[in-house]
Amino acid sequence: MITSVKKWLIYLSVFVAAFFLTVGTHLILKIFDSKPPYIEFDNASPVMSKKRFILKVRAKDEISGLHRSRVVLMQDSESMELVNVQLFGEREHKINIEVEENFLNVFRDGEIIVLVTATDNSRKKNTKTVEYKLILDSTPPKIRFISKPDTSLLGSPYICFFSVSDANLSEIFLRDGFQKFTILSANEYDENLPLGNFFSILTGTEFITAVDKAGNLTEERCTTNFTQPEKVGKNLEISKILLDRIVEAEGIIAAISELSQTKRIFGDVPPRLGLKSSKTLANFGDSIDNINFRGLWIDPLSSTQLECPTDGVIEKVIPGRGHITVSLNIGAGLRLIFTNLDKSYLTQGNKCSQGIILGSVKGPFGVYVKLRDKFIDPDTFFNSRIFTQNFIKVAAQAKKRLGNLPLTPLESAVLK
Q1: What pTM was estimated for this model as a whole?
Q2: Class of residue 304 by CB neighbours under 10 A (exposed 0-12, middle 13-18, buried 19+)
Q3: Which helix (H) or strand (E) holds 121?
Q4: Integer Cα distance of 276 and 281 in angstroms
Q5: From the DSSP assignment, how many helices (H) and strands (E) are in the chain?
Q6: Tell me: the pLDDT tens digits for 42-66?
Q7: Residue 38: left (phi > 0), alpha (psi -120 to 50), or beta?
Q8: Taking the CA of residue 64 as centre, how many other CA atoms within 13 Å lie in the half-sphere pointing to its CB?
Q9: In order of start, what are the domains of the chain with their CATH numbers?
Q10: What are the two backbone dihedrals, phi and then psi, of residue 236, each rounded to the nearest 5 degrees?
């Protein structure tokens, strides 16, 4: 019994000693504390707009706790106190402030200084002041259209060249409804076009969207004068295609290499569209889904081999006896989809260029044109006059307007 009481007295003595040692140490540290509080700025971006101005600051002092925190905005002779609060020994103070736009009207766009001051609760009242520099940006990006067609058939694809200017530009993308797609640099179309310019293939429903680091947003449509397309029959024989397309494209064919039998099947798709397919990570939608749009159906009357009509990459091959489907990515969101092929000689990932045999057919086969996630009328795409107006001429004009850059023989012929 006596031994048990002694043990409890020993435990109590140790506990009391530890308590007074801890309290004493803390008091001594507090009295002789010379370390100022720790201040951290938590903002993800140094650029802010007046419409979205949020400050995230954290002050901390583990020894003496905090006595006061203060946050002030300064620019030239203007200043504004946002926070000045007494904290009564709190170990940490998190500041999360959203400043309303009307309070920021006294500041101009440009550099703005955030002055954060924290004082601890020690006898010395150690104080630390940290200066953070932010950029106030209330100006949205500017989109300038460089070149686009004067007119275009409703629903047919056309190319648009444009530039975006903003010192704090964050992102450029194409918005079609709720879907978001990649926009490419103009030198992806032609390496002679200078950096800082962009292009996209459109149908008129899409918005070009530019967002800066402050969250300012600009959306513009690169629209043209649209006309209603003439309806063309679904089923076309190869002889009719050869006759109509060759006569129609006579002036253009003279400016480019001679078309082979297979190239003529696909109308007047120029030997080089100038569209690179190298950006495999770009978001241009799914290559093949439910084909619910009419295609261009061609009956070659006899078994024939199909050459690649233009440069591209085989994106998908769906096998089937006598009805193989092949998706050819020719860049910038454009795909040619061939259906009812008897054989396919290329597999997914293979490069497809002129002279390479894509596959063979024994009877009627379909050609579909897909732009990102929507099918478009192949009759308007495989039409030399429309293609020249919507692509070749627009690219040539962009080169002229961006500094008389070198033109291809076809572009020179079109401008003349």
Answers
A1: 0.74
A2: middle
A3: none
A4: 13
A5: 8, 29
A6: 887 889 998 888 899 999 988 888 9
A7: beta
A8: 24
A9: 38-136 (2.60.40.10), 142-225 (2.60.40), 231-395 (2.70.70.10)
A10: -120, 135
